[in-house]
C-alpha cells in the first residue's frame, strides 16, 4: 500500500515546497522593490541608489585611471523648462572649479582642506588649493535664484582645474551641505552621469570640451574679472543687452587667479573689490530678475 501512495505523497510535498519557495521569492522581490523606492525618494540619502556600477581603478595619486559607466538614481526636483519666449536665455560657465577626486583609504572622495589636509600634505599639495566649497556655493546661488525658478535659466557648465567639463541642468537639486555635494560629484566623476528619479533624464553629465560647442549660436559671452578695465553697473549693463541674444556669464570658481577669457566677447568688472563667486553670481541673478520683471 505504501508503494501505491508514495508518488502521490511526493508530488504533494513537492507542490507545497515549490509554492512556499515561490511565495518567499515574491515576498523578497517586493521587499527589495519597496526598499529601492524608499532610497530613490529619500533626498537625505547621498548619491541615491546605484543601479548599475562599474568602479574605475584609482590609487592615492590624484585622479582616476580608467572610467566606468553606471546609471545613478538621484532624487531630483521638478524644475521649469528652458525659457522659450522671445527673449534669449541665460547660461552660466563656472571656470576652474576644484573637484579633484582620489581614494582616501577605501573611499573615493572629492578632496577639500577641512577633511583631507593631512592626506594632501603627505602628497606635497597645498590643502588650500582644493576648494570645492566655492563651486558648491556658486551652484546654490544659481539654482536657488528666482531666475532659475521662473524657468529663465537654460544651463550651467562647470570646467574643473583638471580640464573636465560638466553640464548641470536647471532642474538639478544641489545638496545643501558640502559633504553631500562632494559625494554627489564623486559619483558623477566615476559614473559620467547622474539621472533624476524615475530616469527622466540626466541631471548632471560629463561632456566633451570645449564648452563653446555647447553654447547657443546667438550668444553673448561675458567674462567677469576684477582685473578688467571695463567697470560697469551690472543692472545698467544687463538692461542695455540685446534681449534677443543668449547671455552667457563666465565666472571663476577658484580661490585665486583669472578666468580663461579667450572666447569671451566682453570682459567686465562689477566691483572695485574682490568678490566671491557666490556674491558675484547673486548680483548677476538679481540684475537679470529685475530686468525681466521676475518677482
UniProtKB/TrEMBL annotation:
Disordered as annotated region, ranges: 1-45
Domain of life: Eukaryota
Composition bias, Basic and acidic residues: 20-38
InterPro entries (UniProt xref): Alpha/beta_knot_MTases, Rbsml_bgen_MeTrfase_EMG1/NEP1, tRNA_m1G_MTases_N
Pfam family, one: EMG1
Record's keyword annotation contains DNA-binding: no
Keyword set, alphabetical order: Ribosome biogenesis, RNA-binding, rRNA-binding
Family: Belongs to the class IV-like SAM-binding methyltransferase superfamily. RNA methyltransferase NEP1 family.
Name of the protein described by the UniProt record: Ribosomal RNA small subunit methyltransferase nep-1
Amino acid at each position: 500500500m505504501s508503494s501505491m501512495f508514495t508518488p502521490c505523497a511526493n508530488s504533494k510535498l513537492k507542490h507545497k515546497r515549490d509554492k512556499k519557495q515561490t511565495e518567499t521569492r515574491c515576498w523578497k522581490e517586493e521587499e527589495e522593490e519597496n526598499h529601492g523606492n524608499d532610497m530613490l525618494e529619500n533626498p537625505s540619502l547621498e548619491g541615491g541608489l546605484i543601479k548599475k556600477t562599474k568602479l574605475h581603478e584609482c590609487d592615492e595619486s590624484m585622479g582616476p585611471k580608467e572610467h566606468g559607466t553606471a546609471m545613478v538614481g538621484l532624487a531630483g526636483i521638478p524644475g521649469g523648462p528652458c525659457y522659450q519666449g522671445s527673449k534669449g536665455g541665460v547660461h552660466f560657465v563656472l571656470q576652474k572649479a576644484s573637484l579633484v577626486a582620489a581614494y582616501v583609504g577605501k573611499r573615493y572622495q572629492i578632496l577639500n582642506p577641512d577633511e583631507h589636509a593631512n592626506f594632501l600634505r603627505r602628497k606635497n599639495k597645498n590643502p588650500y588649493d582644493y576648494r570645492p566649497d566655492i563651486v558648491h556655493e556658486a551652484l546654490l546661488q544659481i539654482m536657488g535664484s528666482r531666475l532659475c525658478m521662473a524657468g529663465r535659466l537654460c544651463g550651467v557648465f562647470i570646467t574643473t582645474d583638471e580640464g573636465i567639463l560638466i553640464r548641470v541642468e536647471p532642474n538639478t537639486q544641489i545638496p545643501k551641505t558640502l559633504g553631500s555635494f562632494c559625494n554627489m560629484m564623486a559619483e558623477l566623476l566615476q559614473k559620467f552621469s547622474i539621472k533624476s528619479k524615475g530616469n527622466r533624464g540626466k541631471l548632471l553629465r560629463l561632456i566633451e570640451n570645449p564648452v563653446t560647442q555647447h553654447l547657443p549660436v546667438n550668444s553673448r559671452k561675458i567674462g567677469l574679472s576684477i582685473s578688467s578695465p571695463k567697470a560697469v553697473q551690472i543692472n545698467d549693463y544687463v538692461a542695455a543687452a540685446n534681449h534677443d541674444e543668449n547671455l552667457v556669464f563666465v565666472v571663476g570658481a577658484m580661490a585665486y587667479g583669472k578666468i580663461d577669457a579667450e572666447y569671451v566677447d566682453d570682459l567686465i568688472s562689477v566691483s572695485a573689490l574682490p568678490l566671491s563667486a557666490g556674491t558675484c553670481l547673486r548680483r548677476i541673478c538679481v540684475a537679470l530678475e529685475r530686468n525681466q520683471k521676475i518677482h
